[in-house]
Structure to design on (315 residues):
């Protein structure tokens, strides 16, 4: 089935996301269309509608659906769908902060912790977003996110993720920070403390200048230096944080290039209204293939159409 992507001249302006507010929005009509699609198990219509509305509009549709049918839309979708398509459409219906909270929870439950997913989310979210995610985590799981992070990580890496959760924006002088980080590398063992303090309490623009200055002072690429002086999860965490300061879209494109379903869902849903156009451009430069065509090759059926609907178009 060919995807139906609704278009509007004014829905494409002023954002680097791919999913925009649908301009001719009538939630009562959408709710009726969803009900009809659920009755006849028409997954294609569900995909086309939900991927052509932004998150705020999906929330309104869910409320309208409840008024119209006295049923919960999420529960109805769970009954009608299954597998990866079900997961993706349910993720689209979650509030953004709840979706990030769910991803953090998923990264910590079960055998082993997915440390890189923790870093991905904590490194690419603003202080305000992290506060919302923290509140959503408490509301959703009745647990304190900071305590959970401390319990599922250890050592300097635990200190890093907790500091990121409490991300600050303290004023500082670039050269002083450069000197402090350079000094932390002297001696037999590198000192992690200045890296945790500086890298989690400054603005992105400030840190970009610090990293440039540090490379110039050391005469060495930062990634090579981190590989030599740190190890384990803390090394990985610093490298992710550095990449997200320097070029978050490139880091996220690398993550997407694995085509692991959970990562594709996580990144595409959470960045669809923010900067997925930038990630798409980075993906093309990184892999030589567009994200759209790669998704076409990797996935099938309505699940594929839903991902293409979020991706929006070929590059």
């Amino acid at each position: 089935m060919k995807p139906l992507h609704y278009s509007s001249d004014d829905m494409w302006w002023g954002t680097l996301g791919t999913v925009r507010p649908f301009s001719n929005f009538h939630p009562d009509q959408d709710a009726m269309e969803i009900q009809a699609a659920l009755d006849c198990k028409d997954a294609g219509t569900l995909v086309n509608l939900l991927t052509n509305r932004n998150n705020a509009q999906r929330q309104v549709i869910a409320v309208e659906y409840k008024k119209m049918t006295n049923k919960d839309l999420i529960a109805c979708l769970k009954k009608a769908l299954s597998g990866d398509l079900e997961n993706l459409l349910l993720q689209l219906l979650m509030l953004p902060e709840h979706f990030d909270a769910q991803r953090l929870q998923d990264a910590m439950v079960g055998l082993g912790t997915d440390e890189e997913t923790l870093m991905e989310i904590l490194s690419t979210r603003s202080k305000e977003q992290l506060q919302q995610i923290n509140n959503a985590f408490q509301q959703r799981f009745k647990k304190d996110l900071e305590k959970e992070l401390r319990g599922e990580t250890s050592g300097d890496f635990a200190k890093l993720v907790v500091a990121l959760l409490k991300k600050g924006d303290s004023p500082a002088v670039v050269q002083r920070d450069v000197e402090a980080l350079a000094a932390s590398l002297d001696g037999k063992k590198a000192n992690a403390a200045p890296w945790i303090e500086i890298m989690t309490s400054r603005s992105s623009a400030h840190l970009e200048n610090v990293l440039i200055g540090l490379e110039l002072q050391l005469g060495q690429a930062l990634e090579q230096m981190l590989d030599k002086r740190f190890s384990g999860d803390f090394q990985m965490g610093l490298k992710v944080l550095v990449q997200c300061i320097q070029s978050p879209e490139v880091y996220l494109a690398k993550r997407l290039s694995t085509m692991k379903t959970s990562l594709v869902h996580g990144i595409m849903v959470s960045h669809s209204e923010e900067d997925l156009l930038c990630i798409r451009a980075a993906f093309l430069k990184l892999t030589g293939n567009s994200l759209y065509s790669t998704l076409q090759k990797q996935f099938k059926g309505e699940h594929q159409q839903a991902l293409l609907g979020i991706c929006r178009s070929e590059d």
Residues 55-69 form the longest helix (15 residues). Residues 1-14 have pLDDT under 50 and may be disordered.
